[in-house]
């Protein structure tokens, strides 16, 4: 679960040069955002958890009640108050210092060289980093859950329990009896949940429920598909589950629901589809001795990934395929099969297309193969072709960009130059300049013009384009756009 940066973490940022005047016991206070206000009562515009910044402008022209001001901030849940010194006040007003000491609100002196926006940017950066790390951990945990599902329901429960080290996980049968628990002693909680489970079973539409018992937050989710309750998953923790933890719980519930429905042929199709989705997204790998059984049940290498429109004909063909995995992935019919059987040719002949197929790959390159098949399908759709193989398409980054969306983006990027009356000269000059890595003499020589002429054209290009021509990322985008539009 991602956690907002603490007040202490912000204070420890050297370049901000912040100084704590009061609140050494509150350095662990989380800061959820930064707000700037000169109002004597900014609380209607705050949610709580903010670091409030002010220069104290009103404190010079108005008789501000410092105690009432600070009390309002504390009641609103403000994380701390930052006072800009050297702008309106050379020092923090003594009445404000006394008030924060009385109410226990952290007070920070912000030196004049430090703009308020720099503090806001730093907190925003910290929040983004925490969120990214949280999502990365959650994604890795979901991959572990998916791998565990290949070993059965008990392995999923154990994996979820490992991801919730302070909690317990309990898999229950429809009658409330424990099937598996992590840790084992968590099975004792089943009796206390019996009444809640009966209430859930009586509902027309099964729903999850959260409750508190013995200083624990407990979440119970019914398991099954199509309204059938095949069991329950209960999780207990010392606090309410965070966003990433709830995501893991939902993922585990889906996997367990499919596992409990394994006997149903329709659900078996969904299980196969779920396995295909996990394989092509890289969530499951088939390397190592522990995956030998799975590898034996999959199509023989080399394999190909096939993509097509999710038409009834394509879905019907996938169900009838003797060897391979079929599912609708991200709105596309997707099939994984052995390259030796040419499933793409068979599907194109059955449906009439459009069909895209990847290069022949091993199971360690399925995510790339999925991207190849999707790109080949886009070209087949654009060109009204029955079958397009990725091996016949241009390679490299230009090949990846060779889509209607990529071409449109390239045209928009170069539009300011293409619409100019001297567009041919400007585009040629930009290409030569970028190809020569900004070396004037080499670029001018390749164009057959004087370097002063080239300098004038590049100066005009800088005026027309919205981006910074000295930015390497922007130059790279321009170069790709030029290459993409050379075929127009």
UniProtKB/TrEMBL annotation:
Residues 363-390 form a coiled coil. This is Fis family transcriptional regulator. Keywords: Coiled coil. It comes from the Bacteria. Residues 426-483 form the PucR C-terminal helix-turn-helix domain. Residues 10-126 form the Purine catabolism PurC-like domain. Gene3D superfamilies: PucR C-terminal helix-turn-helix domain (1.10.10.2840). The keyword Coiled coil applies. It comes from Thermobifida fusca TM51. InterPro entries: CdaR-like_regulators, PucR_C-HTH_dom, PucR_C-HTH_sf, PucR_dom.
């Amino acid at each position: 679960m991602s956690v907002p940066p603490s007040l202490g973490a912000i204070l420890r940022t050297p370049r901000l040069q912040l100084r704590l005047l009061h609140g050494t016991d509150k350095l662990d206070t989380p800061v959820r955002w930064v707000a700037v206000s000169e109002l004597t009562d900014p609380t209607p515009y705050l949610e709580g958890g903010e670091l409030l910044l002010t220069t104290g402008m009103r404190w010079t022209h108005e008789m501000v009640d410092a105690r009432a001001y600070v009390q309002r901030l504390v009641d609103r849940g403000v994380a701390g108050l930052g006072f800009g010194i050297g702008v309106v006040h050379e020092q923090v007003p003594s009445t404000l210092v006394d008030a924060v000491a009385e109410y226990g609100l952290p007070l920070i002196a912000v030196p004049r060289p430090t703009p308020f926006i720099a503090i806001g940017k730093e907190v925003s950066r910290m929040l983004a980093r925490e969120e990214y790390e949280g999502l990365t951990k959650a994604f890795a945990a979901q991959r572990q859950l998916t791998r565990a599902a290949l070993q059965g329901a008990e392995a999923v429960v154990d994996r979820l329990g490992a991801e919730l080290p302070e909690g317990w996980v309990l898999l229950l049968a429809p009658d409330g009896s424990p099937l598996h628990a992590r840790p084992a002693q968590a099975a004792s909680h089943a009796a206390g949940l019996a009444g809640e489970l009966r209430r859930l079973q009586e509902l027309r539409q099964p729903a999850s429920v959260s409750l508190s018992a013995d200083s624990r937050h407990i979440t119970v989710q019914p398991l099954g598909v199509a309204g059938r309750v095949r069991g329950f998953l209960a999780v207990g923790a010392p606090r309410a589950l965070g966003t990433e933890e709830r995501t893991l719980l939902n993922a585990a519930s889906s996997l367990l629901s499919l596992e409990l429905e394994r006997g149903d042929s329709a659900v078996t199709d969904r299980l196969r589809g779920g396995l295909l989705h996990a394989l092509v997204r890289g969530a499951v790998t088939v390397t190592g001795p522990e995956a030998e059984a799975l590898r034996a049940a999959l199509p023989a290498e080399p394999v190909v990934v096939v993509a097509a429109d999710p038409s009834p004909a394509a879905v019907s063909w996938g169900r009838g395929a003797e060897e391979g995995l079929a599912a609708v992935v991200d709105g596309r019919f997707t099939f994984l099969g052995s390259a030796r059987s040419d499933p793409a040719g068979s599907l194109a002949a059955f449906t009439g297309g459009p069909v895209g197929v990847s290069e022949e790959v091993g199971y360690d390159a399925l995510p790339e193969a999925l991207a190849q098949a999707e790109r080949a399908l886009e070209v087949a759709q654009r060109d009204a072709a029955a079958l397009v193989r990725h091996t016949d398409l241009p390679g490299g980054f230009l090949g990846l960009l060779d889509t209607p969306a990529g071409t449109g983006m390239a045209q928009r990027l170069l539009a300011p130059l293409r619409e100019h009356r001297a567009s041919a000269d400007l585009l040629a000059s930009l290409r030569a300049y970028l190809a020569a890595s900004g070396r004037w003499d080499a670029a001018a020589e390749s164009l057959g013009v004087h370097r002063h002429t080239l300098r004038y054209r590049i100066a005009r290009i800088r005026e027309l384009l919205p981006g910074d021509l000295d930015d390497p990322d922007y130059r790279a985008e321009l170069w790709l756009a030029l290459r993409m539009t050379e075929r127009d």
